[in-house]
Structure formats: structure tokens, C-alpha cells
Specification:
With 398 residues, the chain is α/β, with parallel strands linked by helices. It has 14 helices and 14 strands. 38% of the residues lie in helices and 20% in strands. The chain starts with a strand and ends with a helix. The structure holds adenosine monophosphate. The site of adenosine monophosphate has 11 residues, from helix 10 and helix 12.
Length: 398
Amino acid sequence: MKILVINCGSSSLKYQLLDMEGEKLLAKGLCERIGIDGHLTHKPQNGKPVFNEDVAMPTHTEAIAAVLDKLTSEEYGVVKSMREIGAVGHRVVHGGEKFANSVLINDEVMAAIAECIPLAPLHNPANITGINACKAVMGDVPQVAVFDTAFHQTMPGKAFMYPIPYSYYTDLKVRRYGFHGTSHRYVSKRAAEMMGKPIEELKLISCHMGNGSSICAIDHGKSVDTSMGFTPIAGLPMGTRCGDIDVSILEYLSANTGKDIKELTNILNKMSGVLGVSGVSSDFRDLDTAAAQGNERAKLALDMFHYAVAKTVGSYVAAMNGVDGIIFTAGIGENSADTRAEICKYLTYLGIEICPECNKKRGEDTFISTENSRVKVMVIPTNEELVIARDTRDIVEG
Ligand code: AMP
């Protein structure tokens, strides 16, 4: 079965077409500036040329139509006709408490995704738009929703509740949801395979460190805690997001800057994190360069990030009363040997020993701990699209 995986943002749409026989990537691409003018980058994986041009995309429907046009075209295509695509899998950011697993999309599911809009006002409307656009262009092809939050629905109350009046949970659904679930699920499963043990016998900690970062404690295959919270601003300091801070800072800043909560929240989301501290960049590569040139604030921002990751990992070791394996993934986790080494310096108390040579490898599943290391440390490139495609196939094939 060939499956189209869609990750829809408010003005963008990322896609991959996979052939599930051999789990082979056939093509991938990105629509940008949807609703503004429109640009399509389409990369067939069969040797045909890359298409990289402006295409009018007043709405997501035209974007999907343009993607399908390229996927089936003589010059850039990888399939003969749209009918070869057996199903579409969508990344949906928020499934609230309703979805602990991926589901086949029907009217009831669409209504439930819409109900979660207040919990993810930027993301869920875009996901709904993407699903509707596929329906408009592809008709009755089965569509599946794979939720970022679903993997974390196994967290116990002691981990997902906030210590605030209980009615805010019952009436307004305020609780920790956690995100990056698809990534944490993928890498933890892969880690168990690499360790040669059933995931049901392992205590794992997954560190997804990219533009957004979150850590997840996975006990016997189930998420039992994670660092993002009610929204993806929580937990670690990130590229531009502040992570955990004292909530009173908001009122204090409002009183002293005249900015309202909305403006300040925007600053905490978009101008904080390592960008806010360093004043240099949200990109860790730029911070590495600046720190190497002696920029003290860039160095401080990096130190804060390493320290926060190490503290969170430590707290999850306590939460699970042990750990067998630690995983690094996503842009920083997969590529930055220095970041991994700096974080692991805090973790020698766990009996962790890093092999500096292994830590240099890139782009492949690998152990970076030594044979003697009491806890295994792995780098596993994440593959959320593959998880979405697998779930979609499993659901559609029943
Ligand atoms: P992601 O959100 O997973 O795509 O990760 C994107 C982030 O990964 C970028 O913003 C960079 O900060 C980071 N990144 C990518 N490559 C490197 C690298 N070689 N060293 C440090 N950070 C990197």
C-alpha cells in the first residue's frame, strides 16, 4: 500500500509518499506560503528532477492538488495515478484526552479534533484544513489521524495533574498533555530493538532535542512523564520558547513593561529560550560558533540547556526508579556531538560512559556509550512520518 503522509501547518504543508512494501520513501516535499502566494518544493526519490517553483495556493486545497499533480506527473512523478495512493495519514497536534491512539477519520473524529482547538489554537485548525483539503481532492480515500499527544495518555494522574484547583482540570481540561509523542514512541521502540530486549522490560528516557525539545520517561513501553505540558512552551528552554519559569514572572513583567498577557506569552514563545538568553540565534549551530568565539551569553544559553536536560533526565530516573537506556534524537540530538557529550557529563553517577569515537557518528542508529556503560546511550534519528504511515496502514488494513 502507498501512503501519503501530511503534516499541515497554517501556511505550510509537508508531505511524504511511502510505499509500505519495504517502507520505501517515494517522494517528499513542502508547500509554503499557502494563502499568501504559494511555493512548492517536490523531491522525487526515483532520480527524477526536483521541482522548486512558485505555484498559486490560495488555500490548502490547491496545495494538495499541486502535490498530487507532481506525484503523478510524467516529469516529476513517482506514481501513475492518484488511485495508487491507498490512504492518507495526518499528523494532528492535539487529541486532548479523547485519543490515546491513532484513528480512522470520520465525522465524529473531525468533531473531536475541532473540540480540541482551544487547546491548540494554532495547530488543530490547520490539521482540520489539511484533512478537508485531502477529502476535497481525493474523495473517499481513507484518512487516519495520528496525534502528537496520544502516546502520553498513559501518564498517571500524579504526572499529568497540575497542583491548581481541581475544577480547572474537570471544567477547562487544564493538565499536562505532552507533545512529540510520535517521535518518543518511534525512538523508544527502536531503542528496544537495538538493545535486543522487549520494550516491556525496559526503562527508557527519550530526549527529543530540536527547535522544540521535550524529554519523555518511558516505563515498560508507556509514557509515564514528559517535560512539555498543557502547551509545548513548557519544560526545557528551547530555540525561542522559555520552558519552565515561575508563573509570577508574567504578572511582574506585565506591571513593569505595560505589556498584556498575550504580548508577553508571545515573547515567551518566540523571543525567549536560547535566543532570548544569548541574543544571538535560536539555532544551536550559531550558538556553538558564537560560544567558540568567546560569546559569554551564547555559552550561558548552551550551559542552561545542557543543565536543564540533565536535571530532567535525573528526575525521570527517580520517577522510574532506574533507567536502562537514554536516547538522543531530533535536530540537535542527532547532530550535535558536543551537546550530547556535555549532557552526559552530568550523568556519570548513573555509570554512563560515552565512547567519543562513536559519538562522532551521524545520521544512523548508534550506541554512543561504551560496552561497559551501565546505562546504554543511543542516537536514533527520529522518523515521525514512518510512524504515521505505519499506523495508517495498520488501521486501514484492519
Ligand atoms: P528539528 O526541529 O528537529 O528540525 O531541529 C532543528 C534544530 O536542530 C536547528 O534549529 C538547530 O538548532 C539544530 N541542529 C541541526 N544541526 C545541528 C548541528 N550540527 N549542531 C547543533 N545543532 C544542530
